[in-house]
Each structure stands twice: as C-alpha cells, then as structure tokens.
Amino acid sequence: MLVKDTVYAGIFYQFLLVSYVYKICKVIVVKKWKSIFWLLLLVAALGIAGFLFNEKIQDVFGHLKVKHIELVKLPSNRLRFEVNVTASQTCDAVLQYWVAGSSDTLYTEVSTSKQIHKLVITNTAAKTEYQFRVRVKNKRGNAISKQYPLETQPIYQATPYFTLEISDSSISGELKDQYFITQILSEPGSIVIIDNKGEIVWYEPFLKGVKVSHWTKDKTILAIVGPEKIPSSGGDEIIEMGLDGKIITHLKKGEGDMDKLVHHEVRKDRDGNIYALTFTKKIADLSSVNGLKQDTLNGDGIVLFNKAGKKIWEWSVLDHLDPLNDPEILKHKKDWVHGNAVFRLENGNFLISFRDLNQVWLVENNTGRVIWKLGEKGDFKLDEKLIFSAQHYIHPTQDQHYMLLDNGERNRISRAMIFSLDTNSRVANPVNIVSLPEEYYTSAKGSAALFGNRQDMVLFCLTDPRAFLITDMKGKILWKVQVGGDPYRLEAISGFSPKNPGF
Amino acid sequence: MKRTINKNVFFLAAMLSTTFLSCEKGLEEETFSVLDANTLSLPANGEQAVRGTYAALKDNGGYGYYAGYLYWLYEYPGEVVTTRANARQGVQLDQLTYDANNSTINDVWTSIYRLVSRANESEEIIKKINYKENGSSEALQKQHLGEVRFLRALAYFDATSLWGSVPLLNKPSSEFTEADENPPLTDQADIEAAMIADLQYAEANLPESYPGSEVARATAGAAKSLLGRLYMRRLEWKKAADKLAEVMGKGYDLRTPAEGGIVSLFSRDNRSDNEFIFVLKSSNETSAYGVNSNSFGQNSTPWDFNRGWGNFPLHLSFYSIFNPEDSRRNLLTGVYNTIYGQVVAVPKEYGGIGEEADRDTTLAIFVYNLKYPHTGNYNYSGYNNVPIIRYADVLLMRAEALNELNGINQESLDLINQIRSRSGLQNYSLIDFSSKDALRDAIFEERNKEFFMEGRRRDDLIRWGLAASGGSNPLLKFKEKVVPALKNPSTYSDAVNYALFPYPQKEIQSNTSLDPSINNGRVK
C-alpha cells in the first residue's frame, strides 16, 4: 500500500512540475533574465523529485523486472522452501528449479496478479544441489531473474528409508513424473511423498503417528493423525493440508463436531465433504450369552463433515447387526467386525469394508440402509475361490467395477481382486484377479489399485513384507520399493508437480 | 521565436532532470538474500543448545536415562538391588534372563544416542556462533563446547560400559554420509580415545565452579573425575591416580558428621552440596513430571512406607553387612512405621531389631534405600539429585588406584578412612591388611556400602574381577557375588559374557550394518 502511494505521489508531483515549466516558458520572453534563475531552480527541483521517485517511476513505466528474491529456509521442514519475490510491477510469477546439471525442470505453482509473491518449492530430494530462477509475466512483457543455488539438507527426522529394488524398463515411460503418497504410522509420524525411485521428495512430520494419508482431487493431503496407543489405525485428528504446508482443515476429537475417534480412512467426496471411519459404541443386552444386561459393543461407523467441519451425516454398523447372531460376541465386542475402508461413490452411497466379516457393504446415503453385502455369506453368488478374507481398500475402478486387496488370511496369498456385480441376478463376476507370490502375503493393512495410463497394472502396498509393488495383470513384478517401516497404504498421485506454465 | 525558446527551455529542463534520474541506475539491480531460520547465530542460542544437551540426561523425563532406566541396567544385575516380581523387564535384568528385546536395554541405548546426537548438533551450532562479536567471549564459547563434549563423553562412558564396542558418531547430521545412517560398531578403544579427547578439552575449558543458579553444570572437576573413572575402567592406575588427585583441593569435600553426615547428604534440602561433583538435577514442580523429574523418589520406597512403588528392593543380606555404628545403614529402611500403623523391621538374623520393635512387628522381606527421599504425597515429580559423580567416589577410586600401583600404602588408607570416619567407623591401619588383594577387597566392600543405588555396582563388580584376575576375567567377582543372589543359580551361564549387554533388537533391525550374530555370547 505504502509503495503504491509513493508511486502515485511521485507521478502527481512530476506532472505538477512539468505544467509549471510550461507556464514559465510562456512568460520567459518577457522576463528573460529573471526567468533563468527560475529555470535553474526548476531544474534542481525536478532533479530532486527524480532522485526521490525515479525508481518508482521506472517501475511503473519501465520494463517488468524481478527486483528482489528472498530464499527462506525454515527448520520445520528440510524439503520445503519459501521464496519471496518482489517484482517491479504487478505480475504473475513462477519459479523454475532443477537439479544442478540436469535438464529436467520443475515448477512451483503460479502466483498471480501481485507485486510481491510467495512461491513455495515443494518437490526436492534431500542432499541435492538445485539451481532456480524466477519468471514473471504481465501484459507489458516478461522477465527472468538470475539463477541462484539451493542446496537441500539431509532429512533424518521421522522418515524411514525407501529402497528401489526393481524397476522394469518396460514401465519407465509410465513412471516418468509419477509420485506416490504414503505415511509413517509410528511416532513421530510423517506424511511422505516419494518419486519413482523411492526418493522422498516431500514430507510433513508429526509428533504423533500418521495413520493414513490420502491425496485429494484438490491436490491437498488428508490424513488421520494420532498417538500410537490408539489401536486399529485410529487417530484423534483429521488434517487437510496443502503441499505448501498450509493447514486447510484441522478437526480434533473433543473440539467442534468431532466427537469420536476416527480410523483407517479419510477421504473427500465429490462435493468436498470429508468422510472417515469412526469407532462407535452401543449398549446391548448380552445377558443371554453370559454378558451383561447392559453390555457395551464397540463397532465402526461412518462420519461425514462438511467443509466447515460440521458433521452432516453419521452411520453405525451397530444399528445393522444383531450381536446375538455372533456366537462369540463376548470375545468380539471390543472391536466387532473391524471396519477398515470406506469409499463414497458418485451417487452418494458408501462402500465399507469389514475385515472380520470378510464382507464389503454398500450403504445407502439417504436411509442408511444396507443395499447389499459382497463376500463370504453375502448377497452375491461367489465362487469359493473368490471369497476374500481380511480384505482392505475397497474402491470403484474407472469402469465402475469394485476393487479390493484380498489379504488372503485363509490361504496366506494376497491378491488384488476386481469384481463386476450383477445386482439383478446377484452374481459377482471376477474381472481380474492378480495373485502375488507367497512371500508377499500381508496379514493386515495394505492396498491395491489399478495403475498406469491404460489402467493395466496394479499398485500394491504390502505391509508385512514391507514392500510397494507394481505388477502387470498376471502378477509379474515390474517395480518394487522396499520400505524400512510398516507402511499402511500407497497411492499413486497426479498433479503433484506443476507443469510448465509457459512463460 | 517565443515558441522555440519555450520548447528549448522545456527540453533542457527535461534532459537535465533525466540526467539526474539516470544516475540512480544502481538501485535497480536484482538482489538476492537467504533467510535461514536454521542458523542460530547468537551466544544465547549456544546457551540454549547446551541446556538442550543437558536435558537429554533425563531424556524425556520420567524414567529416561539418568532419571531411571540407566540405573536399572547398572543395579539390577548386581547382587544388592533386586526387583518386584511383576516388573518383567526389570526381573529379566535382575535374574540375568534378559535378551535383545528387553525394552529397558533398548530405552537406554536410544537415550544414549539421543544425548550423543544433541551434543553433536550443539557442538556444530556453538562452533559456528561468533561469541566475541556478539557481546560475549571466546571463553564462554569454549565452556559451552566443553560442556557438550563432557556430556557426550559421559554418554559414551555408559555405552561402552554396557555394550563395549558401539557406533561412534561424533558429527552433526548435516555432515552425515549415506554410511553414517547405518553406522557400524567402532572398537571400544577408538571410542575411548574420542572420549579422552572430549574430556581433556572439557577439563581445560570448563570452570571450576559456577554461580549458585547454575550449579548443575559440568565443571573441570567433573571432567577430571569422569576421566579418572575411565582410566580406572581401563586399569590405567597411574593415570587414574594422577587425574583423580587433580580433583582434590578444588573445593570439593565430604559432607561432615557435623553437617549431618552421609544421611543429610541425600536430604532434599541439600541439593547443592560440594560433595556432589556432577548430578542429575530435577524440578519439584507438578508440571515437571515427564519433563524434568526423575523416577527414583517414587520407586525407591514401598507403598506402606510412603506410597512409593518399591521397585528397588534390596536383599536383607545387604543390610547385614553393615556395622550397626555405620551411619550409612540409616539410608536403609531398617525399621519403619507403615502408613497403616504397623511396624516393619529387619529380622534379627540380618542385623535388625526384629520383633523387639513392637508387639505387632512385621518382619521385613527386603530393605529399601532412602537416598532418594520422597515426601509421601504421591508426587511423581521426584526432584532428588541423582548422583553421577561424588567426591567420595574420587577418594575411593584414588585409594584403589594407589593400591593397585603400590600395594598397601598409607595414603590409600587415609583416603578410605576419610570415608569411614565420616560414617562413624573405626579407621583402618596398615596392620589390618595382609596383602594388596585384601585391601582391594576391602575397598570394594567399602564402595558397596557407600554407593548402593547410585549406579556404580555393575562397573565395580567388573573392575574388581578384572583387577583380581590380572585383567583376564571381568566376571570373576560378578559370578561369585551374583549367582547366590539368583532365584535359580543355574540361570547363570558361563557361555554368556554378562559384562556386555546384548545390542537392542530394534537397533539391529534398523541399522543395516549390524547383524544378529553380534549378540552371540551376550545372551543365552
């Protein structure tokens, strides 16, 4: 504001002086000699004015320029850097950076219509030398700054190691510019983004563990954060943050509408609402099976928050199961059925996975009614060989089929399964089954999703063998990253690295 | 004509003014600056780094490192201190059934390397700060460096006492190479060389004392004492005797009987006694629990005494070795009134008063130490000093070193007698000892009575064995003393070197340079 005012004042002053000169010139013939004195005085005044306002005048009327660049290194994160850019005029700005000696250029997001910009470098590897420069553009032209060095420090806090073990040349094209998001569950935890070599290029550390993380369509990250002592991938905070580190939403248990712990899953629906699995409780009469007259059942639910953090919908599995149907309810009542994944479909209904039932349910949004159950003892005819167990990560594919990771508790073989459901005849048909070798069996956690431009590969996260895999549809391993800790989930992400904006 | 002049004047004025304007081109150069908030540049930052390093002595408070777990490793395996039956990790240490998964072993390992890491980072920060140009002095910079190097040496002292060879990592993370992230074991001798370098720097650059408000900081005397303790462990008697002599006459002394003697040394009102050379200080504020407290007050005494948790019971046989005149015995619960109104007394066969105490006397099964008094208000925030080095240790170490060098000698006896007479015992004289071995045994028995529950027993048993076997058998005395105290003596295995703890399983799993075979001979 101050800068602008000074500029306008300068212009106004110059204008006054020039018009005054003109008036004097009109009378100069009459009072020739006297006016020389005035002329000199005028020149001096103009000079002083120029001295004071020259820079601003040049800024306003001259070429667009980058005037100052400030690189900010903050101790909280060793891979994220703010760069404050002051240009001579209002303009758009972007920062280009590249590993010294490399021709692959990376870009920040474009900052628009400002004179002072804050650009954030969000895609760097540790212990690497980079070069960067700033490009600015407005209607009157564009400009490039000089090049400056940026050396990243080693990261050792809250980060495990990822080691690339296999990378088949056949998918190098597909892997180009591909990034993946995962998380560190233990304390201190971390949200981590790795590149196709397993190199960490972005992270956000937390004192608590990060139980699950998810890349949203808005290029933000959603995560459940909680202390290790909360079991079942549970947490007491939901955090949505940008790559620039800015917290967009922060829900904490006990504050606002978040009255329950959440676990295993947090996502955004089509409208930007946030949904998650919750722990729910219900009092039930278990006296007929030697329990208490008022016994407590612990189960799972779904909660939906709008963008403002207001709870707008809630659902509990305990309203849809009869505890007396479970002969071992006293044993199971502390964590009954164990929900571990939820996905809201385009039509608003929810898919939810229950590990201990070996079932996936479709829940109607409006009524809360269970539309169908897929899996063991479910509503669909399912070949014995297709019965999944302790499954995770139920989600729809682009073709509107249903995909999950079958952990395979029954025969200790984990596999990715895609079903097409015939809801009329109630038959579940396998579209694809990708079985992994025995050594990749994971008893718990994990994920499987289609991968690649043609969606003809599978991306696995396998917790027990501590491996990330990409396989073809026959299960041939094309890419493998070994993980130093227990991963929960891996997602391939798009839009992590902004494209060249072309200026 | 008039118009022409008008025009000319106008252009002249404009040209002149642009000349002025163009002089200012220098201002328009593109400029670049780096704001690195990682860079700590003031002496105050150096002070913060030093304090942060001291804080690592209690790790995260509660039970961390010197606030608790370290002394579990030093005391439980010995024959004096035992455990409550239901404290599994402690029982494993006490009964020598521990393995690489013992969480206390892992905890102490982690704490030690956390202190090393903080010291390394602090050293780098302090080195980079220009103290002189920022209103301070080079002497303070050297003091700060001396303090963090002393603390690092202390951490490695513990690491090498517990595990022998361990990774040596004396550089800040900014200088880490790929290999440093999975550091291999370094030979114990090389680690000790680094410790000696640190301690020599510390003794040369630390002050002899501090103002009252900074009394817990490391002094030159602390560095010399620790160096002396290291030379003792290395059986370098001459170096040890000389180094320890340098601590004498520097303002430290024994708390005299007139001041209340040994019992009052451990009073909570006596936290800055000049017998303490280096201690862990803690705070009594309620909020200090888990941050700035230690666990000894809460754990030393039993519930019926003052609502303690009784996690350090001492065998009754230990009570029986004291002369009734020995005032150090008053630091044990020989007889006490319980909070429920009963009387608990040590049985007569162990030197107590037994049933004479009261009609309804309950005979004690264990005794408990009173070195970490605790007010019975169920306050977790123990603020007792946790002694790390005190002057009595310096005197007894020098007495021992001189005996090893010269055999029975008057100076050794004079040093021991200072300790004995302070506790109300008869002086020793030359005729009391027939050999160097006999005097050595007497010194270790004296040390046992002087330093119980002060974290010295394990090192002492090992050094005693080494000295008595001419350096060949670190377990000679350990086995002799510990086996009779085991619930099942056959637990003891000659195939296990109890002088070295197993490396924590978690470390082996996360450090690719380590292989499970490194624990061969360290666990059953």
Textual characterization of the structure:
Chain B: Residues 91-232 form the SusD-like N-terminal domain. Chain B: Belongs to the SusD family. Chain B: Keywords: Cell outer membrane, Membrane, Signal. The complex is a heterodimer of chains A (503) and B (524). Chain A is mainly beta. In chain A, 13% of the residues lie in helices and 44% in strands. Chain A has helices at residues 2-27, 32-61, 172-175, 329-332; strands at residues 66-73, 81-99, 106-107, 111-121, 129-138, 141-144, 148-151, 162-167, 179-184, 189-194, 200-206, 209-215, 220-226, 234-235, 237-242, 247-252, 262-268, 274-284, 295-305, 311-316, 339-344, 350-354, 359-363, 370-375, 392-396, 402-406, 415-422, 427-435, 447-451, 457-462, 467-472, 477-483, 491-493. In chain A, helix 1 runs antiparallel to helix 2 (32-61). The longest helix of chain A is centred in the first third of the chain and has 30 residues, at 32-61. Chain A is elongated, with a radius of gyration of 31 Å. Chain B has a domain at 310-367. Chain B has helices at residues 2-22, 43-55, 69-75, 88-94, 103-128, 138-163, 188-205, 220-233, 237-245, 261-265, 296-300, 303-306, 316-320, 391-406, 410-422, 436-451, 457-468, 476-482, 505-510, and strands at residues 31-36, 276-280, 314-315, 335-337, 343-345, 362-363, 366-367, 386-390. In chain B, the strands form 3 sheets. Chain B has a 3-stranded mixed sheet with strand order 4-5-6, with no helix packed on it. Chain B has a two-stranded antiparallel ribbon with strand order 2-8. In chain B, a hairpin with a 5-residue loop joins strand 4 (335-337) and strand 5. In chain B, helix 14 (391-406) runs antiparallel to helix 16 and helix 17 packs across helix 18 (476-482). Chain B is globular and about 95 Å long. Chains A and B meet through helix 1, helix 2 and strand 1 of A and helix 1 and strand 1 of B.
